[in-house]
Amino acid sequence: MKDEYNSETPKKPIKVRINSRLLKKENGLNIDYSAALESALEEQLRTEKCNRWMRENGAAIEEYNQFVDAYGTFSDSARNF
Question: DSSP label at 50?
């Protein structure tokens, strides 16, 4: 899948609320919150994009798989294994 994230894109300030216990656990680890959020958001967007694609195309894939089960593929006769 093509990565649509560009790290050179200008940053936009936002307000975020974070669980206070998580902040206490971070104590002294020097975690870059902006980078952590970007990474998590990028992964979430990738997951949601894949899920949407599967919802939109799942029926067609299932139909194709049933066709292959019933009739095989066009290259079945050319295989040597």
Answer: H
Tokens of 10: 């200008």
Tokens describing residue 57 = 């195309």
- In this predicted structure, the answer to whether residue 61 has a pLDDT above a threshold of 50 is yes
Which residues have C-beta within 8 Å of that of residue 50, sequence separation ≥ 6? 1
Rounded to two decimals, the pTM is 0.66
H or E element at residue 31: none
Domain span at residue 70 reads 20-74
Q: Are 25 and 46 a contacting pair, CB within 8 Å?
A: no
Q: Is 38 exposed, middle or buried (0-12, 13-18, 19+ CB in 10 A)?
A: middle
